[in-house]
Amino acid sequence: MSGIGWAITAGIGFGLFQAVNRRANQGIDAYRATFGLLLVGTVGLAIVSVLTQDLGMLGDAPVSSYLYFSAAGIIHFFLGWTLLALGQQKDGANRTGATVAAVPLVATLLAALFLDEPLTVAVAGAVALVVTGMVVLSLRGGAGEGTFSVPWFGIASATTWGTSPLFIRWGLEGLDAPLLGVTVGLAAATLAYAIALTVTGRWTGEPIPMGKALWLGLAGVLVAIAISAQWTSYTFIEIATAVTLMQLSAPTVILTAPLIVGFEHERITLPLVLGTGLVMAGSILVILVG
Description:
Elements lengths: L2 H22 L5 H23 L3 H5 L2 H29 L1 H7 L3 H12 L6 H20 L11 H21 L5 H23 L9 H25 L4 H7 L3 H13 L8 H20 L1
C-alpha cells in the first residue's frame, strides 16, 4: 500500500474509532471504559511492534526517552482519551470529533512557544478559522437546538493531543523509532490508569455488559490499526501530506456516528457541518504552510 493509502486508512480508522467508542461508552462509566480501550490498544500495538520493529533499540535507548514517551502517553491517552469519552457522553461523537480536528493548530502554537518554531500570517488566519468553527459548533448546544454550549471536553482533548507531540519529539532524540515510542507511551498510560482506578475504588462499580465490552474491544482494535497506519504513512510521504489526509477522521465521525450510535443521539445539522468545515480548513491550512 502507498503512503497515501496508509494515511487515508489512518484517518478513516481514527474516525471509526471515535464513533465506535461513543457506542461503547453509552451509559457506562467513562473511566473504566477508557481503561478497557487502553488495554486493548496496548496489546494491539505491542503485537504490531513485535512483528515490525527492531526491539533491540529498546535496550539501547536512554532513560530520558522512556520518560518522554511515558509523559506523552499519559497526556495523550490517559488525559486525552478520558476527555474524549466524557465529551462524547456530554456533547456527542459528532461535535467532539469535529472539535478535536483542531489538534494540528494546537500543536503548531505549542511548537512555536516551546520549540521556537516561527508563527506566520497563515497561522493567524488558521486561528481565526478554527475559533469561528468552534463558535458555530457551540451553537448546536448540548441540550437542544438553538442553545449555546461550548464543547469544553473536546477542546481540552484537542489540547492534550496537540501537546503530546512535543514529548514525542524529545523522546525520539534517544529512540528514533516512533511506533515503539508510541507503544511505550500507551503502555505507561494503561499502567497509570490501572493505578488510578485502584486508588479511587472505581473497580467496584457495575460490571461492564458483554455487549459494551465487545464494542470497546472493537474500538481498541481500530485505534491500534489507525496508529500503526499513521506512523507507517510517515515513512512513505511527507508528514504534512499524511496529516492532511488524516483530517478525514472528522467527516468519517459525522457520517458513521448516526449509523453506529443511532440517529436519536447523533444528528447531522447545518451548524455541525459548517463548524466542522471551518475547523478542518484552519487545521489543513496550518499543515500545508508548516
